[in-house]
Amino acid sequence: MHMLYNSDSYAVVQIELPTGETVSAEPALTRGGYEIVDKFARKEIFIQGALAETFKQGVEELIENSPSVEEFDAYLERFAGMAQQPVVMH
Question: Chain centroid to CA 22: how far?
């Protein structure tokens, strides 16, 4: 688990889980995705697969232009708008 971004509005964590498969000289395969937490709405979403890949590509393109916090938060808002899961402390 890697904290990738943390602002007043959002937090993004990358989660990588080993698949358990071993390939000889290759590094272990991983699966996982990104958890995006909307701090004000108190909701989170976990994205994986094709949506996670789209998210990653968008972030990489955004980073090339040295975005402000507001620009990055606006990008995250597009994904956080799909969040249904309430954030709960346990």
Answer: 26
